[in-house]
Amino acid sequence: MRAVTVADGELAIAERPDPTPGPGEILVAVRAAGINGADILQRKGAYPAPPGSPPDIPGLELAGEVVERGPGAERFAVGDRVMAIVGGGGQAELAVLHERAAMPVPEELDWPAAGGLAEVFVTAHDAIMGQGELRPGERLLVHGGAGGVGTAAVQLGRAAGARVTATVRNEALRPAVAELGAEAVAPEGFGEHGPFDVVLELVGGPNVPDDLRALATGGRIVVIGVGAGIKAELNLVALMGKRGRISGSTLRARPLEEKALAMRRVEAEVLPLFRSGALRVPVAAEFPLAEAAEAYERFTAGGKLGKIVLTT
Amino acid sequence: MRAVTVADGELAIAERPDPTPGPGEILVAVRAAGINGADILQRKGAYPAPPGSPPDIPGLELAGEVVERGPGAERFAVGDRVMAIVGGGGQAELAVLHERAAMPVPEELDWPAAGGLAEVFVTAHDAIMGQGELRPGERLLVHGGAGGVGTAAVQLGRAAGARVTATVRNEALRPAVAELGAEAVAPEGFGEHGPFDVVLELVGGPNVPDDLRALATGGRIVVIGVGAGIKAELNLVALMGKRGRISGSTLRARPLEEKALAMRRVEAEVLPLFRSGALRVPVAAEFPLAEAAEAYERFTAGGKLGKIVLTT
Asked: Could you tell me if B35 lies within 8 Å of chain A, comparing CB atoms?
């Protein structure tokens, strides 16, 4: 099979042996695979794949057709359309994954949308509904509202009955983010739009002191992105006074059972909203697998609405 | 009535008008009232009483007999033994408080124990069982295990089926803390005894980076004391990698309904353990109200096991 490979900062397209599904696993012919910030970090050597994942093939999400089932795998039939989060290896023509880490693709979704759905929607749902425990009527702030996770979080927050504010650096993208359901504002001075019950922090450490200042009593800050800096100075008296909490998480390192649980929750609570049209996957651009280097460049350049997706 | 008063750093015993119970309130003849860190801060002018509490009479907890009921107050009869958390004003011969913020005193408890129970056990229970969501079999670290909240947390953790480690600066107090149910260790190098699922941070900011290093995957740090410093440097990548969370809280500023809920939980989950003898209130020293200045000095000197209590 052909696969995107990364090593020592270099990205290439290389031939690799076809993987074989083990017990409980399925082999998927990948049709589309989204690019995420983790891929960029992995290319730099900063975010190695977890044990059990291909060490040099990036890609945390994919969509495709089941072409083979390993011993005992029974959730899907050969030919079924599935999408999934994987620990790595998604950006290839073939991928193996445990059947319980896969979800069915609603028929309303085309391949690019399905290939760019899993990582961002599972991440956003876990962050704002799981960790953040967002409730109807609450106020949600999404930092970086135009990106993959950001566009997912804005839509999920609105669908959950929250009032959503999103910071969007690129002024030209604010109307599109507003159309997804948020008040779209500049990152500077976002605190004036609060207080917020849940803050989804996708930018990093420098935001955290202002996040805490803009937090409502009993509010929750959920950190899932740190591109702008990993250190945050925390005023504990302010945290206590707000009765606030700060949590952080990554999906990638979780054991199979937790990833599978996250998938089940998304199947139950999120996929019906794609069927009804309440949610969509904004795809900023598609690139064939062979043009992965260009796709990575486009991802890193920013200023896009939603996902960059590789297709095979 | 006589009351302890604080103003501009000065502590005195003064005559004040007897308070009158309003609707839903009870007037309590205080028999015992514990001293807490908040009283020391209030004396320094650093922690003003919340609206609705006497601005210059300290005291966050008390026990005594009901001597009068305001209009509509029906939970207790005149003569009943009650204990409570108040926003201030506990260190006086009389105090008024809402009947729903009071709890019955188990007959096994004498006045000094009852007067030193509410603040620390409600605080510790809310912190480790509420915010920390401690589960049986988990590992709990209590910083400052010999103090009022610390001795409460150690006992509550053990009663909940957790394995408890407590840092105790004063080596001479470690056997007594061990007897309450913890492995009692020096504050230096506590991380070697982890990883911990729940960390109760009673010391402050300087501990937080080490707390995070010693945290188990999915662990929770609960900050309720900041005597050693209010700023903490937080490594967000470590927080994400651990899938951890940090919360902070104070009881004092909460509205009546939340304080009342916390009382109901303690009535249901904690008071039965005093009746069975599984929990006790370690009282380090009792002082008559007139010797409040000496009592505050003793509190600040540290090196004690459990509570300093004023009696009337």
From this structure: no
Yes or no, beta carbons of A235 and B239 under 8 Å apart: no
Confirm or reject contact between B41 and chain A (CB < 8 A): no
Contact criterion met (CB < 8 Å) for B247 and A226:
no
ipTM score of the complex? 0.90
Q: Please, what are the domains in chain B?
A: 2-117+252-311 (3.90.180.10), 120-248 (3.40.50.720)
Locate A78 and state its tokens: 């050969």
Q: How far apart are CA B53 and CA B51, in angstroms?
A: 6
Contact between B280 and A292 under an 8 Å Cβ cutoff? The reply is no
Biggest distance spanned by C-alpha atoms of chain B? 57
Quote the pTM value.
0.92
Q: How far is CA B231 from the centre of its chain?
A: 22
3-class secondary-structure state, position B14: strand
Contacts of B223 in chain A (CB under 8 A): 236, 239-240
CA distance B91 to A188: 47
Instruction: Verify whether the Cβ–Cβ distance A232 to B231 is below 8 Å.
Output: no
Tens-place pLDDT, residues B102-143: 999 999 999 999 999 999 999 999 999 999 999 999 999 999
Q: What is the pLDDT of residues B229-271, one digit of tens each?
A: 899 999 999 999 999 999 999 887 788 899 899 999 999 999 9
Tell whether A268 lies on the interface with B, counting CB pairs under 8 A.
no
Look at residue B205 and give its three-state secondary structure.
helix
CA distances (Å), B55 to each of A121, B39, B49, in order? 50, 12, 5
